[in-house]
Batch of 3 targets.
Target 1
Amino acid sequence: MFSPDIVIAAVLNGLLTGAVYALVSVALTLVYGVLHIINFAHGAILTAAMFAAFFAHQAGIDPLLSVLFIAPAFFALGYAVQRWIIGPASHGDDRNILLVTLGLSIVIENVLLAAFRSDTRSIDVPYGFSVVDLGFVFLPMPRVIAFGVTCVVAALLWALLTRTDTGKAIRAVAKEKLGASLVGIDVTHIYAVTFGIGAACLAVAACVLLPSYYVNPRVGTAYVLVAFTVVVLGGMGSVPGAMIGGLLIGVVESLSGLYFGESLGQLGIFLIFILVLLVRPTGLFGARA
């Protein structure tokens, strides 16, 4: 058995890791909640954002500062991709959207492979090995920063969705697309805005991940697998569910690594995934159809 201090330390580290999972998952569940499709290009967009943050660092800009222009750039990119590629190519059929996003994923990944090969890259920042001393546990500074940024993004998303006209339009389209269009909401525009917000969230996640992680053309795949689990756990389309589910999955992964070994750290994640599908398919905060 491990001492309480070690278990508490594992839980705290799991929460810090889970915050990044939550941020990646929020982008996935937001797109699902409004467009009602799974975005198969999710991992590839995250990878592209990490490469953008990497080359911004090569140009002398810290990843935490580069988020100020990478996130807006990826919002614009996400908006354009949904408005002028995914939307027209799908012809209003959700099955076509799935195929288009899968095709985008393959194209983005292979472009990155052709441009940067399969080499793994990392960066060195002054705070990369800094820690926060709580007396009984040392927390890595990059993950503490990532946790703080995730909290800020969550607060901004909540304000956007509940306090702005755009947020009200997003919730209206998510609830009833036809009714929203009948009262004058531009559904096509809202679809593109939502996709853009999802891409911006991925850009923020990429910028906070890079100081403590690496980047290669396939790095997003690992995170998107966990994100699918988080979305199912929290409830498909539930933003609060994705936030809480991400934190829970981070803690489960950390405790699994502690008790079963680092190589089996993600075993607990997929056990949770199976149990949720068996016991509560709608997730913690999902609504029944």
Target 2
Amino acid sequence: MRLLLPVIALLGVASSVSAAPAKAPRAIQHELPDGMPYPSPSELSLIEQAAHGTLPNGPPPAVISNKGITNLQLIAFNELFEVAYFHELLLNITENVDGYRFTDTGDRDFVTAALRAILAQEELHAIRANNALVHFNQKPIEPCDYVFPVQDFDSAIALASTFTDLVLGTLQDAVERFAIGQDADLAREIASVIGNEGEQQGWFRVMQARIPSELPFPTTSDLNFAFTAVQGFTVPGSCSNIDEIPLRTFEDLKILTKPKAESQNLTFAFEDKDNEAEHLLWMTYINQLNLPVVEPLHVISKNGSLIEATALFPYDDHELNGFTIAAVTTSDGPFDNANSVAKWTLAGPGLIIVD
């Protein structure tokens, strides 16, 4: 009967975590666990034990495309953020921080065991990406200081689910870029990582009493959206070599209306430093592997460079289930894919999950 605990108890795990008043997020210094990002051989051995597996023991290929280098840089940048995130989440649970205290010991033990494995697996992902960069005579990506806008276990799992959705979409883009650059061996490796991230996401969803498999074709993305999103969790000026990653950073896009599984008008806020709102703007939605959906964006207020605007979220007409990426674009398309949306993006990504 003990083996049934994860299935039964975790469906209601939120009720076994004590509530706590909201607190302002604090900056997390970049001293990462387990000697990261450069663990010693003995530390690496312990990471692999915790991860239930090892780094691939075959060497990276002899050559790589420029797109492949950018992929590895973005992957390392994101994985270091995830290492810091899951390390902090584990600390909050093991140190019984308010909002992370479990009333059921069985739930607590299972959750901490799962998160230790996830943390170690993300550590291996980061190590592998940085090792490959060094192999190709590139500088490894250094960690930043981070701020995580969560106050308790439930909000931490919800945020993990959201950024994992974005990671799953971004790695689709990475595989395609590897394929275009003829980096076949690396494409296979990232496809393996997608499987691992999908396993994690299924668990995060079950923890929120959602079905584990979100979509038949998980929503795709673009590297530039992930690059922007991760910077939203970093302390400005703390990323020592972020400038070496040749990707764009968009203006931040806030979703002020809680999206529902129905067609509705949503209100957004974003910076418009170049007065793009003097011209027509659009809200473009990326969902699954379908063609992006474009809706007119209507400005309702402007305070300096800060814009508030509204646009239809056409859930009913386009089956916008699961994870959707929203972006303010300076063109109404038509867009072929997420990459073409990114080329015309002013602000984004806005991350929406409805199901």
Target 3
Amino acid sequence: MLLSQLKYLTALAEERHFARAAQACHVSQPALSAAIRKLEAEFRVPIVRRSNRFIGFTHEGERIVAWAQRVLAEHDTLVDNVRSLREGLSGRLRIGAIPTTLSSIALITSAFCERHPMVTLSIASMTSNEIQRGLADYQIDVGLTYVDNEPLEHVRKHPVYRERYALLTAEHGLLADHETITWAEAAEVPLCLLSSDMQNRRIIDQAFRRAGVEAVPKVETNSVSALCSYVKENRWSAVMPHAWLALHSVPEGMRAIPLVEPEVSKQIGLVVADREPEPILARALLDTLSDTDPQARIDRYHPTGLAPEVTL
């Protein structure tokens, strides 16, 4: 059994297509198919359910894929550990982050990058469910997501900062005289919100329900930037996390109004898979958190929350 054969198998599991898997591995499709057939011969079980195209793995194949992912991850961890003893940390740290936290990634990782200049970062925008799967399948090393809302399974949680919420709206619109706004009042405003597959949206919907109302957005998107573009048109408002507003500043022509009744706050944190060995790059990132203190940096912009007088 060769590591290359396991890499071909995990590539097929990720791509779900023989030709794309071969392309990802920089080999021909016949070479990839032959390597997987050799694995089947060695294990004496069929791994792939074959047809004119890839249709999935057998029950035995699913178990072998999971085993191959673990072996490759442990091999990479071993290589990183040995290399770090000789020349310091290097390699690629793969991070999956929910869209509302992407603005804080640089803040969270800056100390890590300074301490380990030979490490590169790969950052992907993912839903919380995708982060859960990515950690389980060894596709990412670390996730940045909510740690106190929907259950996360088989992970270690490391809180980073608390997320609060404000209504981003036109500076001189109908809400110009509001210093705060209740969730019930916000439900009456034309809204654009993140799509329902985002945990942020589910948190927002829960807040509206706690206020005894249901919000029906006019626009749904999976992009925070798109939300801002609609608010800029002066016809819609958007519920935004205060960390995004604090780190980006309130866009010109808009103002952020704190949302109250109920008060809503959720914990954002780093998550890693609950298994050994722990990826050395993930551990190194966690070790730099005490040098960063993102919560203090975020709250420095608005020490008592999103002050209503802060407008542009």
